[in-house]
Amino acid sequence: MFGIHDLALFIVSGLLLNIAPGPDSLLIMARSAGQGWRAGSAAALGIGSGTFVHIIGAALGLSAVLATSATAFTVVKMIGAAYLLYVGLGMLLSRKRGSAASTATPAVAPAPLPYRRIYLQGFLTNVLNPKVALFFLAFVPQFIEHDAPNKALAFVVLGCIFNFNGMLWCHFLAVFTALASQRIRVSAFVTQTINRLIGALFVSFGIKLALAPR
Questions:
Q1: For the segment 185-208, what is each residue's pLDDT rounded down to a tens digit?
Q2: Residue 166: C-alpha distances to residues 7, 95, 112 (Å)
Q3: Do 37 and 178 contact (CB within 8 A), yes or no?
Q4: What is the pTM of this model?
Q5: Cβ contacts of residue 210 below 8 Å, gap of 6+?
Q6: Which of 37, 71, 79, 98 has the most CB atoms in a 10 Å sphere around its CB?
Q7: Phi and psi (nearest 5°) for 62?
Q8: Is 42 in contact with 31 (CB distance < 8 Å)?
Q9: Distances (CA, A) of 83 to 22, 79, 86, 156
């Protein structure tokens, strides 16, 4: 159907790729641990929206431009790296809720972010990563027949399946992280420390992306 083959292998491979840790997973875990599963789900929905942009872009051939144009790839790469650095530094330098009232006051968790802003963080973290676009361009066509009547439609169908399965994993990760955080009852100081460690990882992801070859 739609000129697609080995659909079961595609689904299993896609799930394994989604489970692999990266900036998207870390953002979901950070928001879920700090603000609960709804915040993690907001980040997941943003990531899913960004993935859908990559799917449509790849189906229309925009990803091919990134693959063939050094200038286009570099521009998108540097914007994405700058955004990852921005998010990471924001986590590292996050102020405590209620600001700095007194040095004797026990550490409290970072101030919560609006869900709309968390959604936008997830969206931009994903959509500004050119490697995601190139991933779809390299991975999805392997499961489309050479004589498929409409390769773009087959690409979109496979991309939507990949994104749907990815959203299942992302929302599971959000709920699991939030429940684990509640059960362990991590102190505000530990929560803030974890938030800053994840911020440091985002900074490292940004530097790695900026230095990545084409």
A1: 655 666 666 667 777 777 877 787
A2: 15, 32, 25
A3: yes
A4: 0.74
A5: 77, 78, 81, 82
A6: 37
A7: -65, -35
A8: yes
A9: 15, 6, 5, 27
Beta bridge partners of 110: 96
Q: Give the tens place of pLDDT for each residue, 118-155.
A: 999 999 988 888 878 888 877 888 888 888 778 888 88
Tell me the backbone φ, ψ of residue 113, rounded to 5 degrees: -100, 150
pLDDT digit string (tens) for 84-108? 787 778 777 766 544 444 444 444 4
Q: How many other β-carbons are positioned within 10 Å of the β-carbon of residue 179?
A: 13
Number of Cβ atoms within 10 Å of the Cβ of 194? 17
Q: What's the gap between Cα 36 and its chain centre?
A: 18
Spell out the residues 6+ positions from residue 142 whose beta carbon is closer than 8 angstroms to its own. Answer: none
Helices (H), the chain: 7-19, 23-35, 37-60, 62-68, 70-92, 115-127, 130-139, 151-184, 188-211
Write down how long the chain is. Answer: 214
* Tokens representing residue 51 in the block: 């993935």
**Beta-ladder partners of 96:** 110
Residue 214 Cα distances to 68, 114, 140, 201, 211, angstroms: 9, 35, 20, 22, 9
Q: Which two tokens stand for residue 174?
A: 């959000």
Give me the helices (H) in 36-114, please. Answer: 37-60, 62-68, 70-92
Q: Are 77 and 209 in contact (CB under 8 A)?
A: yes
Nearest to 51 by CA among 81, 82, 24, 91: 24
